[in-house]
Amino acid sequence: MIIAMPVTPDGRVGDGWGRAHTVAIAEVTPAGEVVRWEEFEVKWDESHDLSGEGQHHARIARFLMDHHVERVVTGHMGEGMAHMLGRMNIHVVLGVHGVARDMAGQFGRTGSVG
Fold it and tell me: Which residues belong to any copy of the Dinitrogenase iron-molybdenum cofactor biosynthesis domain (predicted)?
């Protein structure tokens, strides 16, 4: 499974998805092992207020499609963003806090719920 999550400079799951500065893409085996971890400086925190909501959402959607993301794990996400990801068939897990790599393994394993 391929998971995306906002990450803080100290390696924790970030609180805000649409205003993330850095996003990690993790590939996780069915057993929960993280076999690939890449961090991208997306700067959505800077671009969030520079364009309309539609353009901002499109930017994020393009990033997720380019990386074949199946699940987004985050502390918080706005209702409009959650709706868009649902339409893209991307499962959203909210209210997650902790070490990002650990959370990727936990929420990426087969049968995990969120």
Answer: 11-104
31-53 residue pLDDT tens: 999 999 999 999 988 776 676 66
Query: Which residues does 32 contact at the CB level (< 8 Å), separation at least 6?
Result: 105, 106, 108, 109, 112
Question: pLDDT value at position 52?
Answer: 63
Contact predicate 45/19, CB 8 Å: yes
Measure the CA–CA gap between 45 and 72, rounded to whole angstroms. Answer: 17
CA–CA distance, 84 with 34 (Å, rounded to integer): 26
Query: Which residue type occupies 35?
Result: V
Confidence band for 66, pLDDT divided at 50, 70 and 90: very high
**Is 108 in a helix, a strand, or coil?**
helix
CA distance readout (Å), 42 to 7, 22, 23, 30: 11, 6, 7, 27
Beta bridge mates, 94: none
